[in-house]
Amino acid sequence: MTDDRNIPGDVDALGAQATRMAHRGDWSGAAHAFTQLTRLAAPDDRRGWEGLARARFALQDLTEAQRLAEDMQRRFPGWAYPHLLAGHLHKALGETEAALGEYKEALRCQPDNGEALFGLVELRVPDPDDATAQQTLQVADDESASIADRINASFAAGRILDRAGQFEQAFAQFRQGNDLTREERERQGIIYRPGQREEEIRRRIARYPASSFHTRLSPLPIDLTPIFVVGMPRSGTTLIEQILASHPEVEAAGELITAHECENRFLSAREKAGRTGPVNPADPGDASLLEDAREQYVDALFEHDLDGPFVVDKMPANFELTGFLRLLFPEAPILHSARDPRATSFSLFSANFGGHDPYYNDLEHLAHYYQQYRRIMSHWRTVVPDPLTDVTYEDLVGNPEKEIPSLLRAAGLEPHENCLDFHRTERPVLTASHAQVRRPVYRSAVDHWRHYETWLGPILRLRDSE
After folding, report:
1. Can you name the residues that pair with 311 across neighbouring β-strands?
2. What string of DSSP letters covers 364-421?
């Protein structure tokens, strides 16, 4: 929780601080700051309410997000955002018709709302001559529209044209959406710096060499086994999570930021104690700090009411933390989702992830980030003890009857028929793959990137460097 002493008293300064926190992905801090903003701002000032609701949704607090949606509809009748939020909640729960209705209501409040247009198109892609499609294309090309509306409309227009087989025009829309996003993030000071990224990976490799894994912490004293699903975003991590979540012994945590918070606290405590060099669990000081970090992680699971025998933590970016996770949980299965880098990268470029890391808004940056991901995963495979298992997306969708039982064994689970019918499992899904995991396995996404091969440039070289 952010300390109140660090919260500005000026409303505009507080709003700017909260927004910066949100852009950095500090959703807990943003939620606290936006809560303060709702208390200090004028009754008709909606910034704090929208920011708080977005933060609560990002933190997967769907109950509070639902309460906020209802509260905002009462406070601010005729405002589009509460209907957008309600649409997102229905979408996460697989309630397609209800979500469509809320997005349409948002458009009645604000006809050029790009987020509502994207929501409609994401759930049901129209033909290019449909009224919604025409409205989407118009907003995407309207330079007088807000940048947020143009970004969302551009990605939605790309999907419409993609479905129609107009791939060159679709790619132009995807590129426009990414260019606008990159320009907006740069204006906010959020920039991908390749040299900085390389140094981050170098330091992580030096922090967790092979010697860090010669000594193990004692097992957890409780019957709880985390299952970590890691990998690049859009590599199949949500599909793996949905299959595992269909097992009766498994609870799905979604994309928790908990592991990153625990490692940050661990490193801060280590620095404060004057400890330097590689992490060494054989040293009582490091061992004590690791045990504290593990306790913090488990406590966070309990706070999310996650106390089943197996809990899936599906945060793709935890691939960076694979060594740290292995030190905390020596027996925990770590499942690495692997997919053709060209398919993964194109899926990222076309996905409309404006609120995430800025690397995938530029093809050169995306390729560079992927190379650094490959670099750290190569290190982990060399030094991290099993169970660490690669799960290949193409194999999983190509032969699910064979690969799903293998996946369950790698996770330490007995076979179960529900896992073969994973698309029938009802649970909230907040990622961009919410629709895909509610359908039976399909292979159409495996080579879809090839329609765009002409324009992918540096992404194509990723396969050659494997």
Report:
1. 226, 251
2. HHHHHHHHHHHHHHHHHHHHSPS-EEEEEHHHHHH-HHHHHHHHHHHTT----HHHHT
pTM flag (> 0.85): yes
Residue 73 CA, distance from chain mean position: 28
What confidence category does residue 27 fall into, taking pLDDT thresholds of 50, 70 and 90? confident
- Give the alpha-carbon dihedral of 59, 61, 66, 71, to 10 degrees: -70
Residue corresponding to tokens 């791939």: 167
d(CA 383, CA 237): 23
What are the counts of helices (DSSP H) followed by strands (DSSP E) for the chain?
A: 21, 5
The pair phi, psi for residue 446, each rounded to 5°, is -60, -50
User: What would the DSSP string read from start to end of 104-165?
Assistant: HHHHHH-TT-HHHHHHHHHHSPPPTTSHHHHHHHHHHT-TTS-HHHHHHHHHHHHHHHHHTT
What is the distance between the alpha carbons of residues 30 and 220, in angstroms, rounded to a whole number?
33
Q: What confidence category does residue 3 fall into, taking pLDDT thresholds of 50, 70 and 90? A: very low
Q: Convert the pLDDT of each residue in 78-116 to its tens digit.
A: 999 999 999 999 998 888 999 999 999 999 999 999 999
Mean pLDDT confidence for 258-281: 96
**Spatial distance between the Cα atoms of 229 and 238, rounded to a whole number of angstroms:** 9
Q: Per residue in 301-312, pLDDT tens?
A: 998 888 889 999
